[in-house]
Amino acid sequence: MKYLILFVLLISSTLLNAQIRNPNSISVSYFGESITHPGLKIGIGYQLKSWDKTKESKNASSKIINKSFDLTPSIGFFYHKDYQTGLFILPEISYARKNAKGNFIAFGLGAGYMRTSIPNVHEINSSNEIESTSGGSNYFATNYFISFGKDLSTKHNTPLDIFLKPQIMYALPNYSTGIAYFAIELGVSYKLVKSGMK
Question: What are 15-24's contacts with CB under 8 Å, separation 24+?
Answer without folding.
Answer: 15/46, 15/48, 15/71, 16/46, 16/71, 16/73, 19/46, 19/48, 22/46, 22/193, 23/192, 24/70, 24/191, 24/192, 24/193, 24/195
